Amino acid sequence: MNTTHKQIKEAEDQAQIMMGYSQALSKAANSSNDKLKLLTLDENLKLWVSIESSLKNSKNLLPQPIKDNLFKLSKFVERLTLSKGVSMSKADFDCLANINLQLSEGLMTVVQNSLAKEEAFSLLKCAVDISTARVNNNASELVSALDNNLKLWVYIKTLAKGKNNKLPAETKQNLIKLADYVSAKTLEVGRNVNNVNDTIIDSMINTNLQISEGLITSKKTA
Predict the structure, then answer these.
(1) CA 178 → CA 130, 154, 156, 210, 213, distances in Å?
(2) Cα–Cα distance between 95 and 66 in angstroms, integer?
């Protein structure tokens, strides 16, 4: 799991870097300062040389078709930059900026899909843990499972309320309401953990299963 988190963080960082270079190119496109243009083009070229080098690395586990496409883009950026330099037209600068922007968006899609997969797994695991604790009639296991489930939903609520969350407003509101529901029901069960209301437990388990299924379905559709 730590490796996955590290890979997600790296992809997110790379997406932000690509976005930054895209913005710099857009700024240079509208500037009459040749020194700024040259510096921006040089930095962008170094970025793509670095990307090309990573593609040749044996440890790079990207599918070959993606590697091939990125390699072609790298060569295109290199040819355009070296052949025209500061004499590039605004359209040329915009082209380079759009390449970076599209790659940034692609990386963010990977991040979002990876996070959705992790959240789906976590929701499923919490549902199984709650169900197992109830079957075992083990109050301490149930308390632990419910506590972990509550923490997960608090995390989901925090994500849903985040300013950078691109989920539809209705979806975010539904997740926030579900998180509040889970919180309320967890407290209710906790008041009398030795005499559990099976209807509430079933409802909490089904909530996790449904949202987990929804996340997996969304990932496959994407």
Answers:
(1) 17, 10, 10, 11, 15
(2) 20
Cα angle 90, 35, 20; round to 5: 65
- The CATH number given to 2-109 is 1.20.120
Q: What secondary structure letter does DSSP report for 62?
A: S
Q: Do domains 2-109 and 113-221 have the same CATH topology?
A: yes
> What is the rounded CA–CA span in Å between residue 21 and residue 32?
18
Model-wide pTM > 0.90 = no
Contact 188, 200 (CB under 8 A): yes
Q: Of 116, 110, 118, whose CA–CA distance to 18 is shortest?
A: 110
Task: Return the structure tokens found at 148.
Answer: 């972990």
Query: Which pLDDT tens digit goes with each residue over 181-194?
Result: 999 989 888 888 88
- Write down the CATH number for the domain with range 113-221: 1.20.120
Question: Per residue in 133-150, pLDDT tens?
Answer: 888 888 899 999 999 999
